[in-house]
Input
Amino acid sequence: MIRIIMDVEKYIKDSYNEVIRRNPQELCFHQAVREVLESLESVLKEKPEYIEANILARILEPERMIMFRVPWQDDTGAIQVNRGFRVQYNSALGPFKGGLRFHPSVDLGIIKFLGFEQIFKNALTTLPLGGGKGGSDFDPKGKSDYEIMRFCQAFMSELQRHIGADLDVPAGDIGVGAREIGYLFGQYKKLRNEFTGVITGKRVHWGGSNFRPEATGYGSVYFAQEMLKSRDDTLYGKICVVSGSGNVAQYTTENLIDHGAKVTTLSDSGGTIHDPEGLDEEKLKFVMELKNNQYGRISEYAEEYPGVTYHPGKKPWVFPCDCAFPSATQNELTLEDAKELFGNGCHLISEGANMPTEPEAVQLALSSGVLFGPGKAANAGGVAVSGLEMSQNSMRLNWKREEVDSKLQQIMQDIHQQCLYAAKKYGVKDNLVAGANIAGFIKVADAMIDQGLV
Ligand code: NDP
Output
């Protein structure tokens, strides 16, 4: 027994060191891996068969990584070249599944971190979904519709040979919304001569699922609600700060308003607006029009509504609140931010974005008794409804909005329960970060063992 305990610690350390050696400089990827590995010691002690099967080495290495050139022409006729990525990380539970991100910061390390997180998140949904992620360093900001279309077509011209409804099903992420999904799907359909559920996040009238746009943000709020329930509390009357102003931030805000909470901030990469009165339905409509159709900046919200202030270069965490919903990007909430947030009374964080909270800030949240919903669990509603979109596409059916919402609520409750259960069972009661990692990992590891050394 002692031999196994010592071996487990060494096994985890060696596995992590190997990731660093093999993937130098990919800091976000290292961070995502470290967090999962730190959760697994007691699991590996209980299940030495995982070590025998060398599951860590196998789960840490993507099944396949594809990188490709994306040449396209801008509106002036100049030739541009971007880099495309698809990391097909793990297919033990189902076809690879995960979004596409178009942002200038995208590189292989970012896609690997997102793909790795996706494996465990997808496992938590209880749907048959493997994990993957993709994207490009293309920057959609300031591009015309035609430029976006030409880029999406060029991107899909290569990606199409690597994906398929039963193989790998991409979706949206930062910089990839309904417009981009439409162009990507159109090009796939033309090149492959088939209309299948090869991509999710489609508009509802041509194969999309009702409630997919809402799913990630609504799911993050449902998860927050579950966490509060454990303390006999609700979201009603809570002051909430939300970061970002894209898909996740918008629908987080909508659902918070529905729950009687007051949302006082939104942001983008330029800065933060603070609205002490809180957003309402009409103000949110303005944000949706501004961001989804005009592709404008959040500063314009402060010009529209009196009493609202705009804070260039600032993040929402400086404003007092009860609950925080980071919904923009990775590592947007630092240790300093967390100290300020908690000092101002914040007692709940639900991560709508992927890995938005730096590890030291997560530790502070956990040690301060702040309710903390990790992205893998709290933002899994998006991929869950994408999974439901795949089911509807296979059946050639379209479920009603209420039906999808009720399935989403059930899934978010189940995910919360799985995290709580795993955390308790493995000696880290109430730590949902470890609980999410453990519950997701066990499902994938068991499937990998069942399927042999492939
Ligand atoms: P959108 O592109 O719709 O919106 C992204 C928002 O975040 C924008 O307001 C953007 O501001 C801001 N943002 C992006 N990068 C940065 C940055 N480096 N610094 C500051 N602000 C930034 O993306 P989504 O809302 O879809 O995604 C937001 C997060 O949620 C991401 O982490 C994504 O991985 C995660 N997520 C999304 C899911 C989905 O279903 N869409 C599912 C699960 C997770 P600006 O316009 O100025 O760039």
About this structure: The chain has a mean pLDDT of 97. The longest strand covers residues 79-90. The chain has three domains: 2-60, 64-198, 214-367.
